[in-house]
Structures are given as C-alpha cells and as structure tokens.
Design brief:
- This protein is an all-alpha fold.
- 75% of the residues lie in helices and 0% in strands.
- It contains 9 helices and no strands.
- The radius of gyration is 22 Å and the shape is elongated.
Length: 191
C-alpha cells in the first residue's frame, strides 16, 4: 500500500469518486421521481374538444386586448421542477373557477366543456397523489405564477374572466404538452 503523498492523492480521488457517484445517484433518483407523476390523460382528445368550441368561445370574448394566461413571463418562466405543481394548480384553477363560473347555453359547447372538465379532474387527482407522495415540488416561483393568473382573472368580471380563460385554454394545453412531453406520451400511444 502506498504511503505519503501518493496515498493522500488516492484517498482524495476515492472521496471525489464517491461524492460524484452519490450526486449521480441522487440526481437520477430525483429524475425518476418526477417521471412517476405521469399525465395519463389523452391530451389530444382534450385538444380536439377545445378546437371544436374555440371559435365560439373566443367570439364571446369582449376583452381582446387582455390576457389571463398568455402573459409570456407567467407560464414560460416556469422551471421544469415546478411543472407538476403549476400544472396541478392550473387544473384546479380551471376546475374550481373557470368551468364553474362559465355559463353556457349551447348544449354542444356544454358537452365539450364537460368532457374537458372531467379530463382535468382525472389529471388533477393523479397530480394530487404525486404531491402527497412528495413528488410534485411547489416552489415560491410556482406559487407566484399561479397567483398572477388568479389576479389576472380577478381583474375582470366573473363571466368575462371565465370566457377569457376558456378562450386561452389552448395556451395551457400547449404548455402542458411542452412541459410533460415524456410523461404524457404513454397515453398517446395507448389510443
């Protein structure tokens, strides 16, 4: 066994390799934890339902120069670690506020909105389980982004805010698609 400076160099290399191995293990365990929060809802079906009502909903929007979701900083600045939290919070926003506040007279549009709402409820429950298992991290930035969207909604009259948010649903669906590409692909292959 070597002694002196060579022994210390070998020990330092061994400690460095152990630290590197530990970091790789922890990072891969964290990444596996994120992948367990799978969006198993068929997002294409939701997108198709929305496309069927988008023009009718947006035609009712009287505030063309105002946005609720479309502010570039709000959704586009979300870090990958916060995607689960923001998705869960925005699903709750749509289920608890937008869909409940929207009053629709057309049975066809109402059916499509109900279908979207049911899909959101299912996905929301899946992500809630992830959060309970501590796999869905919520940072202060994620909480702030969600609060900004709620504040934007609150600045309009309830009916107008619901129409505006429904009209911007494609923004949220595109964001989900972008941020959950690896987790929603399995559901796309099932159909």
């Amino acid at each position: 066994m070597p002694r002196g400076p060579q022994a210390k160099d070998m020990q330092a290399q061994c400690v460095s390799l152990c630290l590197l191995g530990t970091m790789v293990f922890l990072c891969s365990a964290h990444a596996r934890g994120l992948r367990r929060c799978v969006i198993s809802t068929d997002m294409r079906r939701i997108e198709e339902s929305f496309r069927g009502i988008k023009n009718a909903i947006q035609a009712k929007d009287t505030f063309q120069n105002v946005t609720i979701l479309s502010t570039s900083e709000t959704l586009h600045s979300i870090k990958p670690l916060d995607a689960c939290c923001v998705t869960k919070n925005l699903l709750a926003f749509y289920v608890d506020r937008v869909f409940k506040d929207h009053q629709e007279l057309s049975p066809q549009i109402l059916r499509k909105i109900s279908s979207i709402a049911n899909s959101f409820l299912y996905t929301q429950k899946t992500l809630q389980q992830c959060q309970e298992q501590r796999l869905c991290h919520c940072s202060q930035e994620a909480t702030n982004a969600t609060r900004i969207i709620h504040d934007n909604y609150d600045q309009l009259e309830v009916r107008s805010a619901a129409i505006k948010s429904l009209g911007e649903l494609d923004v949220f669906l595109a964001w989900i698609d972008k941020n959950h590409q690896g987790t929603s692909a399995a559901s796309r292959q099932e159909t």
